[in-house]
């Protein structure tokens, strides 16, 4: 019987050993993959169970503006309807101040469990990230979009004694550059950016008169101390009905049934302003389980499409925009891009 050289025998043993090791590693990897799959399945099942049980305690809705505004009233109406549908209290918590920074920060710090809903606007999601140093939240990382609620119908307003049409206002402004007073909410705001853009568009200019809020601008129009402003129509429904203030153009997707003779911005060419609409939507803290986000979206969609909410929106000059979560996410991305154009040109 021939003898096998010692080196050859050692090589065979090493080969067998390495083969066994590879086999063991392969088996180990298979076990790891099985365990990972099992854990993932358990996580999905747990999330689904939680979604089925959700909600089992009160829900908080953070509103980043003061009590009494149209948006606050809309939020409370939505909260009441959501409470009726979910069977749990939905409590509105107002966190006004600092250009929506306080509300956004409170939302970002809240647990991602579906028990905190947050109303957001262009300030929260688009302008603050571009204009506020050391912003205490990141809208791209800290929030998950749920649904776009509505867009605020804004109008170009003039006093009772002002021009009757937008063309007449344009002619008056062009004839006296810098002579017409324009009500704004201060420097580096979208109201002032529109003032600058309108001057460029009409080849003239307006003098900015800053105010703290829409009610003050309304008072200035009533007192005939400013010649023009662009603000939310809901701020002055009674004054419009009484004829104390005129609206010459409406920033809405279509003409309002309540103002059938008022053209839209698109009809008059004012839709060329690079900034997006003033909107309000709902987000939740990042990490909120997907089934919970889906459930919240579906419930809110039903509320926003209900006759009760649609009537409220029509009476307060709000343009309903309820759609899918994906559509809201895409809208937010585009609005940030639009905001950057405005900030780079008019807010630096």
Q: How large is the share of residues in beta strands?
A: 15-25%
Average the pLDDT over all residues and give the rounded result.
88
Tell me the radius of gyration.
29 Å
Low-confidence stretches: none
* Helix percentage: 40-55%
Under CATH at level 1, the class of the largest domain stands as Alpha Beta
General shape = globular
Total number of beta strands? 11
CATH architecture level-2 label of the largest domain:
3-Layer(aba) Sandwich
The CATH H-level superfamily of the largest domain is Bordetella uptake gene, domain 1
Q: How many domain units?
A: 3
| Structural class computed from helices and strand pairing | alpha/beta
Number of helices: 13
User: Roughly how many Å apart are the termini?
Assistant: 94 Å
Q: What summary fits the major beta sheet? A: 6 strands, mixed
State the order of secondary-structure elements, H for helix, E for strand.
Answer: HEHEHEHHEEHEHEHEHEHEHHEH
Strand order of the largest sheet: 2-1-3-10-4-11
CATH topology of the largest domain: D-Maltodextrin-Binding Protein, domain 2
């Amino acid at each position: 019987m021939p003898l096998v050289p010692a080196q050859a025998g050692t090589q065979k043993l090493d080969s067998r050993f390495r083969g066994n090791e590879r086999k063991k590693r392969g088996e180990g990897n298979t076990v790891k993959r099985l365990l990972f799959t099992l854990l993932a399945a358990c996580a999905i099942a747990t999330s689904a169970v939680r979604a089925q049980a959700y909600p089992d305690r009160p829900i908080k809705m953070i509103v980043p503006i003061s009590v009494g505004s149209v948006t606050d009233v809309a939020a409370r109406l939505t909260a009441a309807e959501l409470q009726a549908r979910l069977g749990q209290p939905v409590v509105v918590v107002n966190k006004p101040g600092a250009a929506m920074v306080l509300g956004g920060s409170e939302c970002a710090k809240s647990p991602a469990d579906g028990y905190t809903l947050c109303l957001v606007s262009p300030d929260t999601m688009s302008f603050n990230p571009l204009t506020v140093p050391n912003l205490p939240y990141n809208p791209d990382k800290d929030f998950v979009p749920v649904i776009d609620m509505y867009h605020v119908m804004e109008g170009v307003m003039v006093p009772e004694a002002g021009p009757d049409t937008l063309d007449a206002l344009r002619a008056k402004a062009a004839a006296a550059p810098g002579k017409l007073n324009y009500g704004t909410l201060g420097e580096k705001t979208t109201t002032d950016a529109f003032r600058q853009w309108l001057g460029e568009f009409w080849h003239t200019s307006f003098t900015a008169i800053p105010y703290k809020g829409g009610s003050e601008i309304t008072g200035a129009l009533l007192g005939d101390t400013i010649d023009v402003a662009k603000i939310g129509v809901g701020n002055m429904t009674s004054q419009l009905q009484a004829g104390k203030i005129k609206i010459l153009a409406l920033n809405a997707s279509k003409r309002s049934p309540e103002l059938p003779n008022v053209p839209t911005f698109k009809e008059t060419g004012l839709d060329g302003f690079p900034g997006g609409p003033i909107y309000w939507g709902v987000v939740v803290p990042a990490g909120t389980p997907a089934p919970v986000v889906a459930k919240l979206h579906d419930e809110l969609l039903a509320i926003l499409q209900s006759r009760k909410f649609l009537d409220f929106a029509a009476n307060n000059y709000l343009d309903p925009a309820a759609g899918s979560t994906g559509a809201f996410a895409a809208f937010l991305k585009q609005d940030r891009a639009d905001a950057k154009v405005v900030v780079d040109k008019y807010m630096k």
